[in-house]
Amino acid sequence: MNVMGQTPSTPLSDCLNAVCNGRDNCVAFPDNPLYQVSWVNRYNLEYPITPIAVTRPSTAQDVSDFIKCAVANNVKVQPKSGGHSYANYGLGGQDGELVIDLVNLQNFTMDTSTWHATIGGGTHLSDVTTKLHDNGKRAIAHGTCPGVGIGGHATIGGLGPASRMWGSCLDHVIEVEVVTADGTIQRASETQNSDLFFALKGAGAGFGVITEFVVKTHPEPGDVVQYSFSLSLGKHTDLIPVFQQWQDLISDPNLDRRFGTEFVMHELGVIITATFYGTEDEWKATGIPEKIPTGNVSVVVDDWLAVIAQQAEDAALYLSDIRSEFTAKSLAFKPDELLSLDTTTQVTTYIDNADRGTLLWFLIFDASGGAVSDIPMNATAYSHRDKIMFAQGYGIGIPTLTNSTKEFIGGIMTTIQGDTAQTLTTYPGYVDPSLADAQESYWGPNLNALGQIKSKWDPNDLFHNPQSVRPGETDS
Questions:
Q1: Nearest to 465, CA basis, from 196, 101, 79, 123
Q2: Amino acid 316: pLDDT
Q3: Which domains does the chain have, with CATH numbers?
Q4: By the number of CB atoms within 10 A of the CB, which of 35, 45, 408, 473 ranks highest?
Q5: Where on the phi/psi map is residue 287: left (φ > 0), alpha (ψ -120 to 50), or beta?
Q6: Which burial class, exposed, middle or buried, applies to 113 when counting CB atoms under 10 A from its CB (0-12, 13-18, 19+)?
Q7: What pTM was computed for the model?
């Protein structure tokens, strides 16, 4: 419980304390000795941020009451689910915002007649997987980092190995309970508050606090072929033919949708992962084993949970739940924007010659498209339906992040952009605080509509981070 005497009484602190009504671990203020470590708990230590307070609601009513306290005191609000924003946007992304940490909203129910699951907004992906499995061996598509929260993931996109087969995480969301800027607890779906629902599916942090998701689910795949190939090399230019072979494979418009893959370049070489949702015979029948670099080092895992655990282990190779100083940049590619042989040569040559400033860096290419591209661009706020590949560059400071590393990761992306006629955009799940026109890059063709919806539902921009949608924005 707060020691009331420590916090100077302000109208905001009085209001938040009144909502908590003496409950332990319900609100903390900056004078709490464990504030930064236990309450704020920044993911990217490169960005120091001090929220005005951190709240931990237990119910949607608590969320509503905390929002009303913020409105009355002219304070901006951001919800935090897992807290994995690369720029700490779940903490507001700047000093002085009110954080609504959804850690206590972990409810789960399964309707076994429709196989729709209701999932609390603070649930982490590892728990989503386990709860779906334990309640009828069901599954949804989502990313591989176990500590990521569904609140951010399912409102921004949520891409993972099963996305080419089933769509993004947000494509599974059919209804939400959301608290809006006036403190109203309401439902949003295709038929109810449909404009708000459109915005929450792709730009959620600017429109409300989702306390629970209703998602459609799939039966778990029976057999899964999991494949990982590692190649060490003398220099990164040795990777040119390997990358081109992989990129040729993933850019095939008829590529089997049961297949997901990543190409991970790092200090010592490359790791290529592949996941195929089917039997080994079906995997061979696709023809992919002959086309993927090095072919047949496949293992059949017929246990969905084991596959998820393996993917989490692969993800831990780069960023999982470790708090560190890091820099991250990303780009998204349409079919006609893929890397030419010349660009691949320039990028790998650049990597070989650059001052990297760290041994812990990654350049990750992810295959996308498939089922994600089936949904019209204007059906949800998510605007990267036409992309078939993403690139993410990470540089991790050991122990601190140097300018060399920032320039190295930035230089990779500048080199990739070199031969693209138009500026490549990026996905808001891989947030980049240095972008000049972030909203246009993140939401592109949907930005104008989002600005109008924001004007209706949050005209005073209560739900705010440095790159969230602003009221009434237009493309001009």
A1: 79
A2: 52
A3: 11-101 (3.30.43.10), 108-220+441-457 (3.30.465.10), 224-435 (3.40.462.20)
A4: 408
A5: left
A6: exposed
A7: 0.94
